[in-house]
Specification:
One of its GO terms (molecular function) is metal ion binding. It comes from Saezia sanguinis. This protein has about 400 residues and is α/β, with parallel strands linked by helices. About 30% of the residues lie in helices and about 10% in strands. It starts with a strand and ends in a 6-residue tail after the last strand. The protein binds iron/sulfur cluster.
């Protein structure tokens, strides 16, 4: 098999067709090759790209050592000067109307991540770029404060979701502390919020989150898709282990924070231990849970198929067939009402299993609710301090 890759322009074939083409089990355009500690194994072209990569053997491959070939691409972080902090939505099947996300891209690198296709808007690949080229919204806390200070904001305060798009406690948060800066603003203004994460670094901010939880201003959701360490290792390569995430659930619960567990996404014939996850989360102190069923939008489909072929070739066809069974013959169905939980007999079966497990462990579907009446608008004064340039790029040192 050829391992080297060359680069050529091919405008006769659209990148969209290559990345998201027909619904058969695609043979990847690139060699299936796993980088250590990374989820995607493709630098897949995104749907807006006019260029694509073509694999060919240039004869150099044999000269490379095994270590060189397995060396994972490094993570880089680039600062962005955002124009707004709060993102509003009116989707009828999302339980919040506003959210805030300090990062674009996510180093956790979950292969099924629904945020991957959004990296295409940055002219970056939803494959490896998504998990190696992270955009940090360096001015987000200041912008957030400015938006909360607008007189109109106080007329309709609702809980805000933190980290609903990409993980707000992904590895570089330990160094950059953008999420902590946002929580400091939330704390100061007594603004209700809930956050969702796979990251154990949320424990660092318990000094702010716990008192807010006590005042019904904060809730946390920890995502645990499986208890299978091997599966989690390859499916969510840079997220904490499932057992470590259970410790985070316990730490939050012991600090008095209402904790829910997300077992999303459910992937047929892959993470079939939903009941065990709910049981373990309940024992750790989680009081509510929710799930979604995998859907494969845009570039996610070829990325996921390629990953399946590499790690579970004997099950790949069965998994893809069942995903289609859940979505009326397609791998994606974005209609409100069915996009989260799919439809048909297999979707009903998952739903029944989920509710039965919830009942068995005395868990709820929703949390107790947050207090929206305590909000105090902040004082906002324009800062003149020099923010990092959008061209500032650095490689985080995870061992600092
Ligand atoms: S932790 Fe969340 S945002 Fe990050 S890659 Fe996984 S699913 Fe995507």
């Amino acid at each position: 098999m050829a391992h080297s890759s060359g680069y050529k322009q091919d405008k006769s074939k659209s990148a969209t067709q290559n990345a998201c083409g027909d619904d058969g089990l695609a043979v990847p355009l690139h060699p299936v090759y796993q980088f250590k500690g990374r989820g995607a194994n493709l630098h897949i072209a995104h749907r807006f790209s006019k260029d694509e990569r073509e694999v060919y053997d240039d004869g150099w491959q044999e000269a490379e050592s095994e270590d060189e070939r397995l060396a994972p691409p490094v993570t880089t972080v680039r600062y962005e000067q955002s124009k707004s902090a709060i993102f509003y939505n009116d989707s009828p099947d999302i339980p919040f109307d506003r959210s805030i996300n300090p990062y674009r891209g996510c180093e956790h690198g979950c292969i099924y991540c629904y945020a991957r296709p959004y990296h295409a808007y940055l002219d970056l690949s939803p494959g490896l770029d998504f998990e190696t080229q992270i955009i940090a919204r360096g001015n987000i806390a200041e912008l957030f404060r400015k938006e909360l200070a607008r007189p109109k904001y106080a007329e309709n305060v609702q809980p805000i979701a933190l980290g609903s798009m990409t993980d707000c406690y992904q590895p570089m948060e330990r160094k950059l502390k953008l999420t902590r800066q946002i929580i400091e603003v939330l704390h100061e203004t007594q603004h209700p919020f809930f956050l969702i994460t796979r990251g154990s670094a949320v424990e660092r901010d318990l000094d702010l989150i716990a008192p807010m939880a006590k005042a019904k201003l904060a809730e946390v959701c920890v995502t645990i898709t499986t208890l299978d360490r091997h599966l989690a290792r390859i499916m969510e390569p840079r997220a904490p282990t499932p057992q470590r995430r259970l410790q985070t659930v316990a730490a939050l619960a012991q600090a008095g924070v209402p904790v829910s567990v997300s077992i999303a996404p459910q992937i047929p014939f892959l993470n079939d231990d939903m009941e065990q996850v709910i049981q373990a989360a309940a024992q750790a102190g989680a009081t509510s849970a929710f799930y979604t069923i995998l859907r494969l939008s845009w570039e996610l489909k070829p990325l996921f198929e390629s990953w399946l072929q590499q790690h579970y070739p004997e099950r790949a066809q069965r998994i893809m067939d069942r995903i289609r069974d859940l979505r009326g013959g397609k791998t994606n169905d974005s209609r409100f009402g069915v996009r989260m939980h799919a439809e048909g007999i297999w979707a009903d079966l998952i739903r029944q299993r989920f509710y039965k497990a919830l009942r068995q462990h005395g868990m709820n579907l929703t949390s107790a609710g947050l207090d929206t009446t305590r909000f105090q608008p902040p004082v906002w004064v324009q800062k003149t301090a020099q923010m990092p340039s959008r061209h500032d790029v650095f490689q985080p040192d995870l061992f600092e």
